[in-house]
Amino acid sequence: MSSPELVIQVLRAELRAAGITYKALAARIGMSESSVKRMFGQKDMALSRLAQICKAAGVPLEDVLRRAADARPQADTLTPTQEKSLMANPRLLLVAICCLGNWTLDQIIETYRLSEPECIGLMVELDRLGLIELKPLNRYSMRVSTTFRWLPDGPVQQYFREHVVEDYFSGRFDGAGETLLCLPARLSLGSSRELLLKIQQLAAELARLHQADRRLSPDERDGVTLLLGFQSWESSAFTALRRA
């Protein structure tokens, strides 16, 4: 289904949820009911008409467009080639991570030593790589899903393992809303799989909260990182003490 079709589908659902019939909508926008039905039967709609209908129905246009964007099939990962392209330019990786956090262009250039033309150029490259879809006025939407993850043992994850993990764990984890847990246990394979499912559910919940908080102003949000690892493991120092 194309993006315009998804927008119309979402708009139709919003009208239905608000209890607004085609007849009622027609009266509000000065059209005949048959014309409204025909308009919704088409696969596209002018932005001006879409804005008019949203205003008449009391539905925020931004919400309709965001829901349509979220409804599009999106990839959960990039390809190895795409990740290698990110790793070839540290600034491109930085902007990619900012986009995954839904930063605006202004927020990026206010925070990091990037000029506006340079940042726009990097966003154009991210569009070419398929991570984002660049829109007018330097806005963008994500082309990856809310459950996006880096490839296991891929180029980006290897970089994180070599350069980021030590830096991450050097923090104190004693700030508001922070914690650090290292919990050893002995589990059966079935229990391990059950816990893995719960970890995946936690990741989905983080994605949900991340999307919900996009409605808040930038000064009401802070960048956070959830780093989870779960594997059969023993410290090498402890392994050295095992009996032969």
From TrEMBL:
CDD domains: HTH_XRE
SUPFAM superfamilies to which the protein is assigned, alphabetical: lambda repressor-like DNA-binding domains
Gene3D superfamilies assigned to the protein according to its UniProt record, in alphabetical order: lambda repressor-like DNA-binding domains
SMART domains per record: HTH_XRE
Residues in HTH cro/C1-type domain copies: 11-64
Superkingdom to which the source organism belongs: Bacteria
Coiled coil ranges: none
UniProt xrefs under Pfam families: HTH_26 (PF13443)
Position of the signal peptide: none
Protein name: Helix-turn-helix transcriptional regulator
Species of provenance: Massilia violaceinigra
Higher taxonomy: Bacteria, Pseudomonadati, Pseudomonadota, Betaproteobacteria, Burkholderiales
